[in-house]
Amino acid sequence: MQKFSKLTGIAAPMPLVNIDTDMIIPKGFLKTIKRTGLGVHAFDEMRYTLDGTEKPDFVLNKPQYRNAEILVTGDNFGCGSSREHAPWALADFGIKAIVSTSFADIFFNNCFKNGMLPIVLPQEQVDLLMKDAEKGSNARMTVDLEAQEITTSDGVVIPFEIDPFKKHCLLNGLDDIGLTLEKVAAIDAFESQAAQSRPWV
Amino acid sequence: MSAPKTLYDKIWDAHVVSEDADGTCLLYIDRHLVHEVTSPQAFEGLRMAGRKVRAPEKTIAVPDHNVPTTPDREQGIKNEESRIQVEALDKNARDFGINYYPVSDIRQGIVHIVGPEQGWTLPGMTVVCGDSHTATHGAFGSLAHGIGTSEVEHVLATQTLIQKKSKNMKVEITGKLRPGVTAKDITLAVIGKTGTAGGTGHVIEYCGEAIRDLSMEGRMTVCNMAIEGGARAGLIAPDETTFEYIKGRPHAPKGAQFEAALTWWKTLFTDEGAQFDKVVTLKGEEIEPVVTWGTSPEDVLPISGVVPSPEDFRGGKVEAAKRSLDYMGLTPGMKLTDIAIDTVFIGSCTNGRIEDLRAAAEIVKGKKVKDGMRAMVVPGSGLVRLQAEEEGLAQIFIDAGFEWRLAGCSMCLAMNPDQLSPGERCASTSNRNFEGRQGRNGRTHLVSPAMAAAAAITGHLTDVRELM
């Protein structure tokens, strides 16, 4: 898995609340059997007209945000389906960190599996970062996972919380399956015990 | 005497393989359901690492999202990408030796309908699937939730998930429902009250007299939409209704094993005095038939209501409401019953079971679909379809002018050819009214099967109680 440690980049403001997984990657693009190549379709229906032309008003189509690596978003980002195509599309576009007051649980988890960092902050701090993001490409934020801090373009430092295990995996780019397989003896033991206590399973 | 536990606590505790100092657990998974959309990359990952499926006998696959629902599907899937995805599942199921219901099998259907129907889902189990509506299986008192594709691969390889425990939330529906009010109205009314993030970080236990009174089909409808309320899982304690439903199903335990299972299942309830982190209570008598007006499942109103104005909201929801009204082509103050409908869709993992079809058929019987409307019924599985044909429901729908389709997810997410055109407005028994969900620029109003049937007859959103 891709490591994440520290990033300085452009943040794009997306203040709309409840941005759902159908908005992030519409179902037409879920027919792929690959993980890659979805970036061009990220936010497809918000980003392009029916004939495929870019909508100039959409934030990631604006010249100053085309290379955004951070999203600052409204509440409940990523609600809806379990499709990992949503973080795959965002990662393929170049997004590495997302800031919001809240994320849907499954989307939140999926981000970590793909080297992306979702950060939960209180409303006032998201508002402050939203204002900073609105300054455009000259405003670059720094997200430092080791220090658990975001630094705005004018030097305001905002600390954030993160689950220590998820932080560890992200910093070191650890593969979950590899980690779990180290505990295979415990899984074997659980299975033998369950075969006795719940043989019908 | 140990501390009182919730139902969720009990199921969780019975599945912890190991726990780290920071509370991160390895949780054992009893059933892994698989469909064609969220699994190909996971199987590819296994192949690349030279790994096997650890417990193929606990893994069940069925294609549902992409499959056409028209009779010509026997000639193969025309859309190339869809066909490749279904063929990939055929191959993966064969190569890895997992239980499989291919398109040609009468038992094929929506994964969340097939699992319970075949007796794979049992009380006290952990059930996962690369699909957010896995919450459905919570109706049996099993801890069931959606996972991403990386986690699908993790479960295939290890039969476990790395998890931290969620918080406990109780949603109680007291008293009796009034006539014309269904499980769908309950679950939408709850989301209308809590919002789509109200359950985030929680597992919901639904309880109360109105929940107890529901059939298994109704309970599945309620739990199915726990995810629209932000909760990964919804639970209902198993009882006689549950045990009766399970008994005799192909993969349910038999004989002495059933009795042994029953003894354990009967311990699966929340203890007196157990603590919930959040409690929401609704009075069953006060729930009306509801509809959604906007593009979030929290945009719920009683059918007697009017389209709201953005000024009725606060914070970020003001802009969201403006955007929704514009997308939906609605004007504030308009009566919901004045909204004209082009299409009616009855089906999905939310409302594609036999009871749903019975409820819709009861409204439709002897009437005709309004001229110019498109109306379709898509049974949730081949067996639901068969049963509906045997009960005469199919003929009622056909006589009324409905299309009678084969099983699949269909227009719930429109990955197959069943889609809305831009601007087309649909009364749908599915679970999401997101922008573009049923087809780009399509407009969705979520309703119960009976309400969808009523709209098909009148051509506009209708209070079903007027047709009863």
Automatic annotation (TrEMBL), chain A:
Q: Which domain of life is it from?
A: Bacteria
Tell me yes or no: is Cell membrane among this UniProt entry's keywords: no
Q: Name one Pfam family in it.
A: Aconitase_C
Annotated keywords? Amino-acid biosynthesis, Branched-chain amino acid biosynthesis, Leucine biosynthesis, Lyase
Q: Does Amino-acid biosynthesis show up as a keyword for this record?
A: yes
Query: In which pathway is this protein known to take part?
Result: Amino-acid biosynthesis; L-leucine biosynthesis; L-leucine from 3-methyl-2-oxobutanoate: step 2/4
Q: Which residues form the Aconitase A/isopropylmalate dehydratase small subunit swivel domain?
A: 1-124
Q: Which positions carry the signal peptide feature in this UniProt record?
A: none
Q: What is its EC number?
A: 4.2.1.33
| Gene3D superfamilies linked to this entry | Aconitase, domain 4
Q: Which InterPro entries does this entry report, sorted A to Z? A: 3-IsopropMal_deHydase_ssu (IPR004431), Aconitase/3IPM_dehydase_swvl (IPR015928), AconitaseA/IPMdHydase_ssu_swvl (IPR000573), IPMI_Swivel (IPR033940), LeuD (IPR050075)
* Catalysis performed (reactions): (2R,3S)-3-isopropylmalate = (2S)-2-isopropylmalate
One GO CC annotation, please? 3-isopropylmalate dehydratase complex
Q: Which family does it belong to?
A: Belongs to the LeuD family. LeuD type 1 subfamily.
The role this protein plays is: Catalyzes the isomerization between 2-isopropylmalate and 3-isopropylmalate, via the formation of 2-isopropylmaleate.
In Swiss-Prot or TrEMBL terms, this protein is called 3-isopropylmalate dehydratase small subunit
Organism listed in the record: Paenirhodobacter ferrireducens
Lineage here is: Bacteria, Pseudomonadati, Pseudomonadota, Alphaproteobacteria, Rhodobacterales
Automatic annotation (TrEMBL), chain B:
Question: Which gene is this protein's source?
Answer: leuC
- What EC number(s) does this enzyme carry? 4.2.1.33
Q: What's the catalysed reaction?
A: (2R,3S)-3-isopropylmalate = (2S)-2-isopropylmalate
Q: Where is the Aconitase/3-isopropylmalate dehydratase large subunit alpha/beta/alpha domain?
A: 9-459
Q: Which residues form a coiled coil?
A: none
The pathway that the record names for this protein is: Amino-acid biosynthesis; L-leucine biosynthesis; L-leucine from 3-methyl-2-oxobutanoate: step 2/4
Q: What is the lineage of its organism?
A: Bacteria, Pseudomonadati, Pseudomonadota, Alphaproteobacteria, Rhodobacterales
On whether Metal-binding is a keyword of this UniProt record, the answer is yes
**Name assigned to this protein:** 3-isopropylmalate dehydratase large subunit
Q: What does this protein do?
A: Catalyzes the isomerization between 2-isopropylmalate and 3-isopropylmalate, via the formation of 2-isopropylmaleate.
Keywords (alphabetical) are: 4Fe-4S, Amino-acid biosynthesis, Branched-chain amino acid biosynthesis, Iron, Iron-sulfur, Leucine biosynthesis, Lyase, Metal-binding
Q: How is the cofactor bound?
A: Binds 1 [4Fe-4S] cluster per subunit.
User: Pfam families under this entry?
Assistant: Aconitase (PF00330)
What GO molecular function annotation could you give as one example from this UniProt entry?
metal ion binding
Cofactor(s) recorded for this entry are: [4Fe-4S] cluster
Is Mitochondrion tagged as a keyword? no
* Superkingdom as given in the UniProt entry: Bacteria
Q: Which CDD domains match?
A: IPMI
Family statement drawn from the similarity comment of this UniProt entry: Belongs to the aconitase/IPM isomerase family. LeuC type 1 subfamily.
